[in-house]
Structure formats: C-alpha cells, structure tokens
Design goal:
Distance between the termini: 18 Å
Structural class: alpha+beta
Shape: globular
CATH topology: SH3 type barrels
Number of domains: 1
Number of strands: 7
Helix content: 25-40%
CATH class: Mainly Beta
C-alpha cells in the first residue's frame, strides 16, 4: 500500500496526479456517519495542537494512506495540509496515531 507524507517534491507530484472514484467507498450509512464524525474530530484536534491523522483512501487504482493534518472538512471535501483536498466519499478510515 502506498503511504504519502507529502514531505518530498516527488510525493507531492505523485499525490497531485491521483484520480478519485466517483462513488462512496463505504456502503453502510453507519460507517459513513462514523467517518464524518472522525473527520470533524480530526479538525478539532488540529486546531488545538496541530495533530496529524492517517487517512486510508481509495483512488481509481488502489487503496493508499496519507499522514497529514486536516485543516477543514465540508460536505464533499477534506482540506489537507499543503493545500490538497480529498473527496470525503473516497476515505475508508481515519486513524489517530
């Protein structure tokens, strides 16, 4: 599984070329609610102490992970550190290391 930290120009370049799926990777409404709650928790933790999380997400080809701060979350997108965003419907898990 590919793991991004966005700490090198090569990783930033590779991450910027990802294409995300059009549908939600979680089929259960309960899992979708848990994902949204964890994303809101990650935003709150980031605002208090710049906490990073590990997101497991899926693009068009496979599952990947990224370690980053979550600066904001909306209905459709999650804003990550360094100005990147990921569609919420592509996120499988939010881990708090």
């Amino acid at each position: 599984m590919t793991f991004f930290t966005l700490s090198s120009p090569e990783e930033v370049e590779s991450f910027s070329r990802l294409h995300f799926k059009e549908y939600d990777v979680l089929s259960s409404p309960r899992e979708q609610i848990r994902r949204k709650a964890n994303l809101l928790k990650a935003v709150a933790l980031e605002s208090m102490n710049r906490a990073e999380v590990v997101l497991t997400f899926e693009d068009q080809t496979s599952c990947k992970k990224i370690r980053s701060r979550i600066l904001a979350t909306g209905d459709d997108q999650v804003m990550l550190d360094k100005g990147f965003s990921i569609p919420i419907h592509c996120i499988h898990f939010v881990e708090f290391p």
